[in-house]
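Recall from the previous chapter that SMILES is a line notation for molecules. Here it describes pyridoxal-5'-phosphate.
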Amino acid sequence: MILRNSKLFLDSKKVIPSGVNSPVRYFEPYPFFTKKSDGAYIWDEEKKKYIDFCNGYGALLLGHRRKEIIQAVSKQLTLGTLYCTPTQSEIELSNLIIDNFQSIDKIRLVNTGGEATMTAIRLARGYTKKKKIIKFEGCYHGAHDSVLVKAGSGSAHYGISVSDGGLDEVSKNTLVVQYNNAEEFEKTIKKNKDIAGVIIEPILANMGLILPENNFLSDIRKITKENNIPLIFDEVVTGFRVSSGGAQKHFGIKPDITTLGKALGNGFTIAAVGGKKEIMDMLSPEGRVYQASTFAGNPVSVSAAISSIKTINKIKNKLYSKLEKYNLQFTRALDDMATDMNIPHQINSTASMFQIFFTNKPIVDYPSSKNADAKKFQKIFHALLKQGIFIAPSQFEVVFFSDAHNRTDLNKALDAYHVALKSVKN
Ligand SMILES: Cc1ncc(COP(=O)(O)O)c(C=O)c1O
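With both inputs in hand, we obtain:
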């Protein structure tokens, strides 16, 4: 009997390139097709239930179908879905974001993280009247030409360091520096007088998980300040996840521009770019930096984001410490298991995210992450999947906890990791 997921994949491949609408969703031999989700769980078309640790690649901080958000969105659906005029709720959302993120004076809403980083980079170029940007190896900022150079996530997974169809004329204006290497960064700045901006994931969550070492972020801030170069923190993953004010609040560092997405809408399509007033005021129509979108600030996504932030603000005193505790206990137990089984491994973790790598060398940058045994990771992924545990299907992604997970879910996942680890034991 042909299984339903397999049949759907065959059907899908006929009409959708590679059968998926985003490359990271594909895995061998074919992905499962999801029917529904709730809380910490998703169910596929074969009625199999999974505990979800992919969590919309970090978007679902509060879990699937979070009650408060569904209520807010349902109410909005009775009032309309798209006006393409300003709304009072956009002001409310902007104020909520500004109150949470100290570095942001003004904010513009967009739809996706990629759109946010594209706008952030254009703003930096418009503001400085310079051309080049600096990004860091392995950081992923969306699928557009300026940043799709030595990027993480799916492009690292599929080994595409510069995409076919991307323009050399664009990518040659993107200088790439190793993550956690402030010295190389400073040298690059000294050598190039034409730097318009620097974009970085303050915590690198697209090469597995890589934490900024010691003073790395404060050095980057200091050097960019000394050279009058706008610093963009891409907080599409870390915003609202690492703290209610993102990684910048956690580290006490103020960037000039911030991009947000994912957890901002807890499963609804919304992202944002915000920053200093003098930079944000460069945006059209008052300014000369053009950015536009039909769906930006649509009332459905805005109602979801308002509800997400209000919920986060209400429960933040418990939320972040609970998730951090979950993560700490989980990763300690996982570490003990792998150590007991003599499996060379590294675990990087912070806040509500972690990743395990199969190597005995610390994972601190793109080369060290690339050198970990990705084949072993694939084995783990499949062994977990078989047991109803869904994590992102790539070494270069991250395992996310959400507010919807409970201790039983975590214990089940740990048991499943225990079984899975046996598949990579030599
Ligand atoms: C740090 C970071 N920035 C930007 C993006 C792009 O966001 P989107 O997929 O919504 O375009 C991602 C997506 O994973 C991301 O992780």
